[in-house]
Amino acid sequence: MRPAKSAERDVAREGEPGMAIGDIPILSVLRTRLDWAQQRQSVLAENVANADTPQFKPRDLMPPKFDSQTRADPVRLATTESGHLPGLGDAAERFRSERKSTYGTSPTGNAVNLEEEMMKVASNQMDYQAAASLYSRSLALLKTAIGKTG
To answer: Residues 82-139: pLDDT tens digits?
Structure first.
């Protein structure tokens, strides 16, 4: 049988470091996503800026990969009644848009397609705004949990 923990061990002592915000997995993942979106915006802006540069090839960043601890299992809808509609499940993958560039290289050797790049910029901006919103809401939730409102 273990002895009961003393209350002073459970509470961080004054002068001792507590848990850092970066140690909270969801905040760490969101911050990584925000950093990635910011760096991707720079790369996409460079592509747009070099749309008329001869021999320029557009670049893009690969999305960040997260370890198995931060990867969640997909949520599936359960059909417990005969009247329930089944969820999309794996069918959602069929609707995912993974468009390959259908445009050729210009006579100068430039392969930048402005329409495609601007679509990537808009998508990146929406991803950034979503991650920033989740990050700020998570911080607000933590403040509420510790009793700091306002």
So the answer is: 887 776 655 444 444 445 555 666 777 888 999 999 999 999 999 999 999 999 999 9
Domain boundaries, the chain: 23-58+109-144
Quote the CA–CA distance of 135 and 27 in Å, as a whole number.
Answer: 6
Q: Phi first, then psi: what are they for 91, rounded to 5°?
A: -65, -25
Please choose, from the candidates 107, 108, 102, 100, the residue with its C-alpha nearest in 3D space to the C-alpha of residue 60: 100
Q: What are the tokens at 105?
A: 């290289």
Q: Please, which contacts does 61-69 make with residues 24 or more away whose CB atoms are closer than 8 Å?
A: 61/36, 63/36, 64/32, 64/33, 64/36, 66/29, 66/32, 69/25
| Among the listed residues 103, 141, 105, 97, the one whose alpha carbon sits nearest the alpha carbon of residue 123 | 97
The residue with greater pLDDT, 16 or 136, is: 136
pTM greater than 0.70: no
